[in-house]
């Protein structure tokens, strides 16, 4: 007669400890690791963003409680603020000049580096360095000294008998010095362009050589179409950065946007309204208009990308 072992109805303590924790416990552990980011997002990003949206409908000077005034700030911006339209004009001129020139220079240099020259890692690091330093206060101060009347640029021009102007004090040239500073920060898009060029198969160029295509035809018919996703990404990132440019204009013009408001970027005008004149509600409205402009540009770029950006499919 055979006997069967009885199945224990209780679980021993070691087995209990070896079993995984419940779903709620795992969720709490996960959120505990996410807590630093969540606190930062809610307290430093989402919270101030919503607060600025409310303040944009108020009259707030940092000293008294905000007074709700409806859409008065936005109406004043659109109908009765000459400086707003002038700062928009200066900013759009800066974006239109700086972004294409910066991307073109970065792409040209990336193609040179893509030929496999010796010491490529060193050149990559050196060329990327301006992107790390270009937006700093120290570089803006250095740029102001370089383009002053007695700066190094005019000293170099004097060697050829050219009497250069005071670049940063002349409204005809001051904006171009900031555009040149933006182009000098070509390192970041150059690295991305170089990575994109490395992804283009070499046999495509070999086939084009066999068919008799010259270098210009290869660039137009092969390199540019296959590089359009990278151009699209760099274009959006650099345009957003150009709209948000602040430090160079603030340092070079000493916070005035001069001469004659020729370097009055939109962000600099927003800073003046909020922190120089303490019209924080009005500055919040200006900030939301900038957000809407950037969002519209980004949406337009994505909508039109289907017509000129070529992916693998």
Topology readout:
Blueprint: H1 13-18, H2 23-55, E1 58-59, E2 67-68, H3 72-79, H4 82-113, H5 120-133, H6 137-146, H7 152-158, H8 174-184, H9 187-198, H10 202-210, H11 215-243, H12 247-252, H13 266-276, H14 280-304
Antiparallel strand pairs: 1-2
How would you briefly describe this protein structure?
The chain has 313 residues and is an all-alpha fold.
Largest sheet, in brief, is: 2 strands, antiparallel
Mean pLDDT: 88
Cα-based radius of gyration, to the nearest Å: 28 Å
Described by the principal axes of the CA atoms, the overall outline is: globular
Please give the count of helices: 14
Instruction: Decide which structural class fits the backbone.
Output: mainly alpha
Strand order of the largest sheet: 1-2
Beta-strand residue percentage: under 5%
Structure description:
- The protein is an all-alpha fold.
- The chain has a two-stranded antiparallel sheet with strand order 1-2.
- It is globular and about 75 Å long.
Features:
single chain; 2 strands; 14 helices; 313 residues; mainly alpha; 68% helix
């Amino acid at each position: 007669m055979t006997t069967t072992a009885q199945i224990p109805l209780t679980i021993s303590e070691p087995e209990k400890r070896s079993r995984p924790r419940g779903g709620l416990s795992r969720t709490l552990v996960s959120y505990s690791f996410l807590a630093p980011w969540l606190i930062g997002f809610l307290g430093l990003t989402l919270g101030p963003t919503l607060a600025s949206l409310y303040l944009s409908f108020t009259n707030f000077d940092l000293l008294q409680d905000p007074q709700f005034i409806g859409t008065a700030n936005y109406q004043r911006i659109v109908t009765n603020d000459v400086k707003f339209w002038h700062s928009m004009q200066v900013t759009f001129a800066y974006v239109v000049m700086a972004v294409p020139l910066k991307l073109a220079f970065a792409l040209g240099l990336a193609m040179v580096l893509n030929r496999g020259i010796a010491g490529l890692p060193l050149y990559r690091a050196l060329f990327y360095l301006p992107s790390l330093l270009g937006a700093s206060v120290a570089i803006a101060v250095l740029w102001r000294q370089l383009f002053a009347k007695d700066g190094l640029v005019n000293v170099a021009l004097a060697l050829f008998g050219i009497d250069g102007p005071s670049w940063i004090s002349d409204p005809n040239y001051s904006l171009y010095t900031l555009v040149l500073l933006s182009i000098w920060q070509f390192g970041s898009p150059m690295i991305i362009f170089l990575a994109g060029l490395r992804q283009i198969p070499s046999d495509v160029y070999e086939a084009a050589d066999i068919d008799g295509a010259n270098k210009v035809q290869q660039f137009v018919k092969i390199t540019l179409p296959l590089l359009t996703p990278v151009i699209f990404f760099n274009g959006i990132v650099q345009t957003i950065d150009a709209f948000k440019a602040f430090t160079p204009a603030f340092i070079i013009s000493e916070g005035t946007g001069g001469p004659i408001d020729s370097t009055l970027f939109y962000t600099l005008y927003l800073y003046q309204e909020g922190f120089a004149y303490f019209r924080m509600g009005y500055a919040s409205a200006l900030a939301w208009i900038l957000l809407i402009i950037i969002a519209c540009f980004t949406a337009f770029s994505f909508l039109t990308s289907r017509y000129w950006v070529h992916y693998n499919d």
